Amino acid sequence: MQGFRRLNVWEKAHELTLEVYKATARFPKEELYALTSQLKRAASSVAANIAEGCGRGSDADFSRFLLIAMGSASELEYHLLLARDLNFLSETDYQRLDTAATEVKRMLASLIHKTRGRAAAG
């Protein structure tokens, strides 16, 4: 397995996590242990699962962690929508973050497909 820092999808997921942290810094303080925490955990889970999967010994394991990252990215999409609907995120910030999350999911889907093909062949 290659180092996770070399994967474009990990880099995009990490950038998205940093942006989520910046955006949630402006959330109401009473949300610190609720939606703020959920958003941060979902975002960081995407990049963390990509990294953990890279540390595993097989394409099958890597693919499984990529699927977990995909689930976290979907969770992030919902929490972003909720934050927007609660007026914690502006429409502009929501669109920017949601577009980035969608791009990460697209990249994950492509890598999952590629990795599954290698696992089946090998």
What does this structure look like?
This protein has four helices and no strands. It has 122 residues and is mostly helical. Helices cover 78% and strands 0% of the residues. The mean pLDDT is 94. The relative contact order is 0.17.
> β content, as a range?
under 5%
How far apart the termini lie comes to: 14 Å
Low-confidence spans: pLDDT under 50, at least 5 residues?
none
Shape: elongated
Overall number of strands = 0
Helix content: over 70%
Largest sheet: none
> Mean of residue pLDDT?
94
Q: Number of DSSP helices?
A: 4
Cα radius of gyration in angstroms: 15 Å
**In sequence order, what are the helices and strands, one letter per element?**
HHHH
* Category from helices, strands and their pairing: mainly alpha
